[in-house]
Automatic annotation (TrEMBL):
Pfam families, A to Z: LRAT
GO molecular function list: N-acyltransferase activity; phospholipase A1 activity; phospholipase A2 activity
Keyword Plastid appears in the UniProt entry: no
Domain of life: Eukaryota
Organism annotation: Elysia crispata
InterPro entries found in the cross-reference section: H-rev107_PLA/AT, LRAT_dom
Alphabetized PROSITE patterns for the sequence: LRAT (PS51934)
Family label: Belongs to the H-rev107 family.
Residue stretches making up the LRAT domain: 1-63
Single biological process term from Gene Ontology: N-acylphosphatidylethanolamine metabolic process
Name used for this protein in its record: LRAT domain-containing protein
């Protein structure tokens, strides 16, 4: 951030449509209860897991879920593309 620049804050409560948020005092109590060293894990307990646990009582990360789905579907898509290319090449030779 440059000197004199106004900080930008983004609020992401997109899961409010899916889950009911806890009461504000409960969210704060949960967040404070985890101050200090923690067992951080990129895939099992990252900052998104923490935020969702505080706000909704659910340990969930859409980023991790999307990364896992993408890592599974990307190779499948590549294999399908190669298969389609082979079939198209063979059909063109006939």
């Amino acid at each position: 951030m440059l000197e004199g620049e106004t900080p930008k804050v983004y609020v992401n409560n997109s899961a409010d449509a899916k889950w009911r948020p806890l009461q504000q005092d409960e969210i704060i109590k949960r967040a404070k209860s985890r101050l200090g060293p923690t067992d951080y894990s990129l895939t099992e307990y990252n900052c998104e897991h923490f935020a969702n646990w505080c706000r909704y009582g659910k340990i969930n990360s859409g980023q991790v879920r999307n990364a896992v789905i993408g890592s599974v579907l990307s190779p499948i898509g590549a294999i399908a593309w190669v298969g389609i290319s082979v079939v198209a090449t063979l059909a063109a030779r006939k």
